[in-house]
Request: fold
Amino acid sequence: MNISLKTSSKQNNNDNLIIIGIKESDFTNSISDDNSKAYIKTCLKNNQSIIHIPGADKHIIAIKAEEKDEAYKLNESLRIAGDQAQAILNSTKQTSCSIINTTSNKSLSLFVAEGMMLGGYQFLKYKKDAAKLKASLKLINITDVSLKKDAELLSASCYANAVAKDLVNEPLSFLTAVQLSKEIKRLGKENNFKVNVLNKAKIKELKMGGLLAVNLGSIEPPTFNIMEWKPKTVKNKRPIVLVGKGVVYDTGGLSLKPTPNSMDKMKSDMGGSAAVIGAMCAVSKAKLPIHVIALVPATENRPGGNAYAPGDVITMYDKTTVEVLNTDAEGRLILADALTYAKKYKPQLVFDAATLTGAAARAIGPFGAVYMGNADDKTKKAFEESGKATYERLAEFPMWNEYGDLLKSDIADLKNVGGAVGGAITAGMFLKHFTDYPWLHFDIAGPAFADQKSGYRSKNGTGYGVRLFFDYLVKVANGK
Reply:
């Protein structure tokens, strides 16, 4: 992340200003130039909510906090305005700005800053003219020291979101399963969480049949990554375990995907792993007093000479036999082994994130994530509130027993697909078989990768899930 955030009671007189207000006097009282005051008055009469006043010494951007029927919608509009503000400042090569909030709601400054930091993300690693393309804005100052702790949490969240975006944007030519483990180790060292990587020999010893089967077609070995954050004092007696799908590239295996609008985007099929890795970075950077573990099974899914085939029967880590009828339903196979592994921790809660099904993406599009599971209503409500707070919204799908019946196999314990009906749900029902603890499943196939920029949401990797999960974990750390 290129932009730093700080809080200060003062602003530099020559600094660029972002003013948040509601009525005309909120803006005009903060500036001295009569022409600028008159311009703001005219723009407000024309119902402009973002007003840019360029100047030789500094730029002023006025953002009107439009009233919404629900607070979270106002907050989202301010994130979008923040993205527009950073675009203006970067286009004019500005390096810093101060946010002045004239309203009674102090937190509004945070949402503008969040939109600026998220919207200012860039992935320039493979650009030969990266130095020329790099954005100029480096520092945002919120002129309210009472928001210092909130600003620190926001910085951790935006940093971790950028980590996830970077991982999703990396191509397979760099980010193999082994390299993903190296990146996790690097991030663990930078953020002080523990990392243990199980290699292929150990995965074979443990007989993780799902992960090994998916990996059969690849010349690159799989890895199983274990991350842990456990400070000296923690609020939870038993750990919260995060599980992320780490299919670093998905061809569909022998059930080969078409290339246009499908396989060409499948470097993003590890978006679930990026979300939980990012969440671990945020939790550790913020030094939350909770015990959190993250598990990431990682591999490619390729149609190599020894690839697993439709009709094969594989034996999972928990000894369940699975009839594979579609090798493109591979994510659930590697997640199932990880969900079984999570049992050893006797967890308080397990939640997994995966770009799992096209069915989820088709059901609600890129506007949120599908989720389901057997966690209690209080936990579900807390996640839905976090979904609104971060605008990473959630739609709960049912887990009726009839969906489980669709996974019955004639020759094995389970099939890995349930047919054309309720594809996102049958995938969730498959995963449920491997749990014996409170659990939630988040299918982020729709929002994890974007074909175009939308507000502060970047094109390509969006880092979806990081902010949602971190917001929930902050609540756990605060005893909520």
In short: Residues 148-169 form the longest helix (22 residues). The chain has a mean pLDDT of 96.
